């Protein structure tokens, strides 16, 4: 590869994350050369050679994520489905895992993902629509063909991670004729949902373990039928699910992020191990209590020292939210904004936070004894969290850190963090799983060799 080819390859990799304007500005900050958006376009379109200096080349390299400290020595391999911005991935990298496959369809989320996670070109594959891998939307592909194609397309792995969407199952319309002869019963029960795709990959690749994440309401969704079918499917595939029979308010499968970050965010966590490997005995998510931080987090810990005025609510929006809350409280409803201070636990950050920020508004001195339009109250209107504060609230950054790269607009960043998971929760789950993953990997290798 020539120097020009290396430069173009690097520029194209960086363009998967950042736009031309940002790259030009970044290069100018290193060496003022009057680079602009058009300069980058001309390079990419072959109308001019990049001719980067060594300093510029290194500066572009630094925009890409670096390999983890343990590279290239990894303890196990995993895949990341419905990956979002990699909230599940982080915990499993921290315990020595290597991601070998990522599937995420949302392009802005992929940009953030690629900005923050190293992907070994010799081992890692990217995919967008998971159905391209599972062929679940292809009526012309038989069940046997689909499994053979999945096995070829998805790298071997020891752990499967997935935060699949919650959808109802319905077997109406699946004829008896179509069901006959199918190797897996779940093919009928779950068809048409994205869990179907996860199950197909588990069936084809037989990882030693999996971690599935979903909203708390998965347990009660469609009157409990959705959760029942999921558990039955995993059992059919030969997997033991941790704490599967636990119910009620003390269910250890439901973990609240507020134990790790200053945000009330409950998620259901399904951890499973292959039954035939015998590594699951004694595992329970109750043990996550042993990994809680010694100091309970405070909201003030995530605040930035300086916040742009653009994050302060406009007078019109603040007045609207204030009056809207009063109106619904009078009707006995719970709708309204969430005004919080530095010692509080925030409500759940949602993907719609970019619209008005109402669920988490940072108090800047509002006096409830005075009218909302009082000059003092208007001067101290609340503000939204900044994207960087959202990164800290979700555990992507620690207090005072700004290491997680956010290469997208504020609107996209709010959507991405609102759709994500609380990272420290799943880092703790990964730590609980590690010894069993490593043991399961060894035993799965023995099983494969014996079967060969």
Give me a quick take on this structure.
The protein is of the alpha/beta class and 452 residues long.
Notes on the structure:
By secondary structure, the chain is α/β, with parallel strands linked by helices. 39% of the residues lie in helices and 10% in strands. It contains 18 helices and ten strands. The protein has helices at 3-15, 20-30, 37-44, 54-61, 87-94, 107-116, 131-134, 143-153, 176-179, 186-189, 194-205, 225-236, 315-330, 353-356, 375-379, 387-393, 410-418, 423-451, and strands at 76-81, 97-103, 125-127, 159-162, 209-215, 239-241, 254-256, 266-274, 339-340, 361-362. The strands form two sheets. Strands 1, 2, 3, 4, 5, 6, 7 and 8 form an eight-stranded mixed beta sheet that branches. It has a two-stranded parallel ribbon with strand order 9-10. Helix 5 links the parallel strand 1 (76-81) and strand 2. Helix 2 crosses helix 3 and helix 5 packs across helix 18. It is globular, with a radius of gyration of 24 Å. The two termini are 40 Å apart. Residues 171-177 have low confidence and may be disordered.
